[in-house]
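# step 3/5: fold
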Amino acid sequence: MSRLPAEPSPWGAQVQAVAHRYDQEFSGKAFDLPPEVEEMSVFQDWIAGTLTPRISTPFWEAVKPRKRDHCLDIGCGISFLIYPWREWEALFHGHDISAVACQALTSRGPQLNSKLFKGVTQAPAHRLEYEPQSFDMVIATGVSCYYPAEYWATVVQQVKKILKPGGWLLFDALNPDATLAEGWAILETYLGAEVYLEDLDRWPALVKAEGARVVSTRDYEMFRLFKVKWDP
């Protein structure tokens, strides 16, 4: 398993914590949690596999990837194996900090569809070392919640460089007022990755500060999806 190098940025410890948390889950290793956490309904739903569909954000309801679009999925996990990329006929580029997820995609992605699967890079969200204007769409769901808003400003700066003119950024943010939010945040902390309960109003202002605008939003059970664009 390839581990991430030490991250010199202020967010290095959190990056490593999130990577370890998802390596453990994707490799099927058990988590050692106290009984009071295992008794929480959100934990029971997580173990049963019924939580993930409720907290996953269907980004394609905002913008569906088009045929031959180059799409970068930040924090992709194993999304190429479970989302309908073959139906969209869009070109998938993965980006994730979990070595286990990256290895799974590298192994199974080409078998699923070698024409659409364009590889996966193991790196944190703020390290987007791609050629300028490479992508028609950048997707980041289930990522921003693990970092402070200041971190996400850096990610948005990097996205601007690699997005084609007229391209879309789709990202979600945790709604701290959602019924599930507090319990899920507690669970994630015990799983090893702290969750940040940022006010939803912070995100449009953050995007605007980076020269972009929120075109629209969609609310789901626990996350709000932001559809973002840079005007010419």
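# step 4/5: annotate
The mean pLDDT is 94.
# step 5/5: archive (pending)
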